[in-house]
């Protein structure tokens, strides 16, 4: 399922979050707990606007899908998800079920796929994909 998410965002060069007044959707993990046995926060991302829009219900009824590019997704979102000790939620459905992924693992899988597809990204904080990959490897 991670592969499907990555393939879709690479094909479209887009990732989606849902937000309201610059606050993005956060859910609770069903799989991961912190040291106090509380569910870890999950920052949700979608590979299509339609799937994201289906989740704009209940608590998130005022939220709207927002498009971000892959470089921004990596640098400004996944790195921050890691820094906050959160988890990345991928293509959650309306019941808030989906894949939960470690943000660093997701970055490495994304880098591998981008390299395989010979796609280079321009980053603000990294020189290139190899620099990004090396920096993430240091954190593991």
Structure write-up:
By secondary structure, this protein is of the alpha+beta class. Helix content is 40%, strand content 25%. The strands form 2 sheets. A 4-stranded mixed sheet has the order 3-4-6-7. Helix 4 (103-116) packs antiparallel against helix 5 (129-139). It is globular, with a radius of gyration of 15 Å.
Class from helix and strand fractions: alpha+beta
Q: For the largest beta sheet, what order do the strands appear in spatially?
A: 3-4-6-7
Q: What is the rounded Rg?
A: 15 Å
- SSE pattern: HEEEEHEHEEHH
Largest beta-sheet details: 4 strands, mixed
Q: How many β-strand runs? A: 7
Low-pLDDT runs of 5+ residues are none
Global shape = globular
Task: Quote the average pLDDT.
Answer: 94
* Beta-strand content estimate: 25-35%
Indicate the percent of residues in helices.
40-55%
Straight-line distance between termini = 23 Å
Number of helices: 5
Features:
140 residues, alpha+beta, 4-stranded mixed β-sheet
Compile the SSE list and pairings.
Blueprint: H1 2-12, E1 15-20, E2 23-24, E3 26-33, E4 39-45, H2 49-54, E5 64-68, H3 70-83, E6 87-90, E7 99-101, H4 103-116, H5 129-139
Parallel strand pairs: 4-6
Antiparallel strand pairs: 1-2, 1-5, 3-4, 6-7
Helix pairs in contact: 1-4, 3-4, 4-5
Structure summary:
This protein is α+β, with helices and mostly antiparallel strands.
């Amino acid at each position: 399922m991670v592969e499907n998410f990555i393939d879709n965002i690479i094909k479209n060069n887009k990732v989606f979050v849902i937000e309201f007044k610059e606050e993005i959707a956060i859910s609770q993990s069903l799989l991961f707990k912190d040291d106090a046995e509380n569910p870890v926060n999950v920052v949700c991302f979608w590979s299509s606007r339609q799937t994201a829009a289906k989740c704009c219900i209940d608590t998130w009824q005022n939220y709207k899908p927002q498009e971000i590019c892959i470089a921004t997704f990596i640098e400004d979102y996944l790195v921050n998800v890691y820094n906050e000790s959160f988890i990345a939620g991928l293509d959650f459905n309306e019941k808030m079920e989906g894949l939960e992924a470690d943000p660093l693992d997701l970055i490495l899988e994304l880098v591998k796929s981008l390299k395989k597809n010979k796609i280079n990204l321009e980053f603000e904080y990294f020189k290139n994909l190899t620099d990004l990959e090396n920096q993430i490897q240091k954190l593991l």
